[in-house]
Records
---
Amino acid sequence: MLNRVALTITRKQPYVDWANGTDGPVPVVDYPEDDRRTVYLAPVGRTAPDLAGLLEEFWEEVFEIELSMWMEDESTWPHPRTREMFDEWFDAQVDEAVVDLVPNEPLTVEEVEDDAVQYALEHCSWCDLELEEGQPRRAVGLPILDRESWSFREGLTLVVATSNGFLTGIMTTRDSPAARDHMDVVFSACSSRCEKIIRKEAARALKRMNKLVRDLY
């Protein structure tokens, strides 16, 4: 049982009209109704959940999050945003009981990212063999020609697609010794054989990724 209440926000037609008027990824007019909902975890009060009170406290933050989930460019957001507009754009309901059915699994995005980094450190990027403590391991560092395009993954995992599947490495932070040595992405290898394969496959994949970014931008 989580010490939170669930505040469920449903996007209404004015939000859909706004989203379809931006340069967003895809039109949303045909989305199923369920795809227009977001669940927020809000603090538990001393009495029964008070929807009006929660909205009074959080409507501005929720409004901004809902807009940013579709379009980060704030110049496209409606101005000014009022509580009356919020009520026109969104429906809200609050539920008292929030239960985590998988309490041993990561809950937040940060926890998921941390878990992915730990897994990448402890497993061979090619054969997925678990690298047990004390077992020799090899770090395969490779450069990215256009590092800035992937800077949002610094300190996190970076998955690259090869002709034989996917390789997961960790993108180094720009001020790290590895980055200064042009090791922008580091993959784990369990043997010299896997190291050679990773160097070959990952280098090709990173080159394709850079070309894709150049073609897009």
---
Amino acid sequence: MTQPSRFPALLILGTMLTMPMTYGAAQPAVQPQKAPAPRAGEPAVPGAVAPPAGYVIGPDDVLGIVFWREKDLSADVVVRPDGMISLPLLDEISVAGLTPAELREKVMVEANKFVEDANATVVVKQINSRRVFITGSVAKPGAYPLTGSMTVVQLVALAGGLLEFAEGTKIRVMRMEKGAPVALPLNYKTFSEGKNLRQNIELKPGDTVIVP
């Protein structure tokens, strides 16, 4: 009796072995790439924050000044009320009014007096110089950090809202413009009715909102 050929079975088995496995054990997931580790000798700079557009350094801001391969020059510093910081070897440096990029160039110029090819990084760790103030008939008067865009009404809400007997029609924003104080009015009642929406201006660092 003729034996059945094993060729079809072998062909089928070979085909199965070469087919991609779409069933059975799950394929391992692709692992996310890790951030590259700091280069040898490079100080870590944790706790950085993203400065808002137009940010310049001011008093009470906390900065990290990191020099590549120069740990003795690196430091975390707080900007003093006079706008100065103190760095190892570099001593006193005026920083108020500079952007982080401008400060980086400045410290590298100073550092090149002591080391060759100084390479620095300036990291903003805390922004304490950008504040607005609200006083008067609100639940929580005081100073509030201005880390992004904020309007008068948003600050009122952040301060807990108007008190029962607040004169919301007579709110004023006190601001310094060209060295002189100006008062910018806001009528909370008309704004809440959807009228004269432009009076709800965006606040600037140093503004004081007064709620009678």
---
Amino acid sequence: MAKEFSSTTNQNIDSCLSRNCAEISLQDRIKGSLIGFFSGDALAMPVHWYYDVRQLFHDFPGGIRKYESPKSSFPGSIMNLSNTGGGGRGNDSGDIVGDVILHGKKKFWLRGGNFHYHHGMMPGENTLDALVTRLLVQSIIRKGMFDPDDFRNSYISFMTTPDSHNDIYAGTCHRMFFANWKNGVDPEQCPGNDGHNVDAIDALMIVPPITIAHVFSSKEVRYEAVKKSIQVTRKTSAVLEQAYIYSDMLTSLLTENTSIRDVASVAASAIGIDIASEVARSRKDPMTACYIDSSFPAMLFFAYKYGDNVEAMLLASTNAGGENVARGSLLGALAGAWIGYSSFPAHLRDGLVFSESYSLEADAFSDLILPNQR
């Protein structure tokens, strides 16, 4: 599959590899990791939750190769089977979607509709979960540290403000949080868990910035911050092992002269997988749903198989379908940490809808972590 990708991919990576990895500054790695996170999310956005690869390649001939908008019609979407009054599946009589969050967008959730989960979004635009991660970045910049209360308040304000974003989809954890919030529950107690959709890989999307913010902290302090940041929006402990492992992967790429394949191999071993053997005997790339026990190993599979070519890695993950948005964002953060912002594929780095703002925020974030570096 890697042979199908453009020659510019190899040029970008060759440019990176021509430098000694140790010469890439931590500042460039931090900025690259944050931009890579948003790139991986936006690249996969238009084909999020495609479980039929034939449909994906029909809708996007040749597959996704650049930022695209989703198709408006998406037969097979389960958004019209989801509960508009809380988490999981259910009827469309509730008003959490439409009145409390996702203002005016309930029409896309009604029974009989076949809208894509990110209907109407522009090429290079980020999903709601990625934007929630951006709120954490902004909160850390504003407060000079991770402050769960500030992040929570920012999250509530953002989600309940009309037109704060263009996404039409919000996952179970968000719908459960705001169902509780509407009923007057203390915001710290609003996170919920339906026992099915909350313990998912999208919970890890909050991990990259919190890891970067604690790159010089002890492992124990970093793990505690990872736990607290995840539990601001969802009540879960089932994803914490994977969250800590991912945080270790990112920390190693930021601070050690190592590679994506190396950290993927170590991470896979930590959960009992021989990733080299898995990749060698697999005839095709994995397609998985969001559930952490299958989605996290799939993320490691892409990291190991394509880890020496970051654009190939992100495109392969995108075009495999399934839960590719969270997976793509996590792979993108690893990619940027490895090759740095300067060597990140330019069309992905600069093609984001909010690229200029992201760049400024990434600079401010790295300045906070690494004062006096400019």
